[in-house]
Write a structure and sequence with these properties.
The protein is α/β, with parallel strands linked by helices and 227 residues long. 37% of the residues lie in helices and 19% in strands. Strand 4, helix 4 and strand 5 form a beta-alpha-beta unit. The chain is globular and about 45 Å long.
Length: 227
């Protein structure tokens, strides 16, 4: 059993409930520098609606130089494969919380491979402004650069969202159950102390984004369910 899995297992036993788990699972601490912010956000959430997987000792979010990059990618992929093994059958949505840096405005990117989820996020952002801050931006996860397909209208029928090629295994980010959604919240400070990260307003904003993402993901899954 790997060292990473040894870190994950005690948390799951401690969090077990006799009844079924909530359908949304929030993962915090996959990048160890972001754990304190994730804990502050999780404290704002209704744990009857959103379950929590806390990674006590994740990998660094700082990418190494070219000589060590391949090994880093392998460790990154292995961590996420192990996370996927801890998702319970009733947990239909996997939200992966991360942080970025933007000194101008607190905002969030919501990354997913499912277009219906991204459309729902855009609608939520327009209607509510994600409870303040700089709002949410939908970002599509794709294995390769999207083709631009001409439409009958004046604009090309391509992905209307910015896109990224994920470093995660495709079995994770391109799965419908659980539906993977990455959330990157941009904070005004690029450094986090061991016990504090993010202002109270940034924490509240991130919690509102997580709630909106969970609602969108469950709505999309209900609409896609057969029958």
């Amino acid at each position: 059993m790997s060292a990473l899995l040894n870190h994950l297992l005690p948390f799951r036993r401690a969090e077990a409930r006799a009844s079924g788990r909530p359908p949304v699972l929030l993962v915090i601490g996959a990048h160890r520098e972001e754990l304190s912010f994730g804990e502050a956000v999780a404290a704002q959430l209704d744990r009857q609606r959103i379950d929590l997987l806390r990674i006590p000792v994740g990998i660094s979010g700082q990418r190494p130089g070219p000589d060590a990059l391949e090994g880093y990618r392998q460790r990154h992929a292995e961590l996420y494969r192990q996370i996927l093994e801890h998702v319970q059958p009733e947990q239909r949505v996997l939200i992966d919380l991360h942080t970025g840096f933007d000194e101008r405005l607190c905002s969030a990117d919501v990354l997913c491979g499912e277009p219906a989820l991204l459309r729902c996020i855009e609608h939520q952002a327009t209607e509510s402004g994600a409870a303040g801050g700089g709002g949410m931006r939908a970002v599509r996860l794709l294995a390769s650069e999207p083709d631009v397909v001409p439409s009958h209208g004046a604009h090309p029928q391509a992905a209307s969202w910015p896109w990224v090629r994920p470093v995660l295994p495709e079995a994770i980010w391109n799965s419908r159950r659980p539906l993977y959604v990455g959330v990157e919240v941009y904070l005004a400070s690029s450094s986090c102390a061991s016990s504090a990260c993010g202002t109270p307003a940034e924490v509240r904003f991130a919690a509102a984004v997580i709630e909106a993402v969970g609602d969108c993901a469950l709505s999309v899954q209900r609409a896609m369910a057969p029958g």
